């Protein structure tokens, strides 16, 4: 989770490349294998997919704090879709 924090907050105001270096070990490979048409430039998304889980856990914890029932699979899917949309907009990728 520590690397995720670094990735998310970018405390050192690093460039994307430096950041990617810092969070190395969070691999884009699984993502690249499912999306062979992606080139290395879009590794960020590979990184991001690795962090979906963490985002979801965090959102899930917020749910717990408000004593709400745990998020359903539908909710999770909704968050994932939202994240995906934001990412694609940020990286100017065509939507799936």
From TrEMBL:
Residues 2-34 form the V(D)J recombination-activating protein 1 ZnC2 domain. This is Recombination activating protein 1. Residues 36-96 form the V(D)J recombination-activating protein 1 ZnH2 domain. GO terms for molecular function: double-stranded DNA endonuclease activity; histone binding; protein homodimerization activity; sequence-specific DNA binding; ubiquitin protein ligase activity; zinc ion binding. One of its GO terms (biological process) is chromatin organization. One of its GO terms (cellular component) is DNA recombinase complex. InterPro entries: RAG1, RAG1_ZnC2, RAG1_ZnH2.
């Amino acid at each position: 989770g520590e690397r995720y924090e670094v990735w998310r907050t970018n405390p050192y105001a690093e460039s994307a490349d430096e950041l990617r270096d810092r969070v190395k070990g969070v691999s884009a490979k699984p993502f690249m294998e499912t999306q062979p048409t992606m080139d290395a430039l879009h590794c960020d998304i590979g990184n991001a997919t690795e962090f979906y889980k963490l985002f979801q856990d965090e959102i899930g914890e917020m749910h717990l704090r408000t004593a709400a029932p745990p998020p359903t699979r539908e909710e999770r899917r909704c968050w994932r879709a939202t994240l995906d949309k934001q990412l694609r907009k940020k990286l100017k990728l065509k939507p799936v």
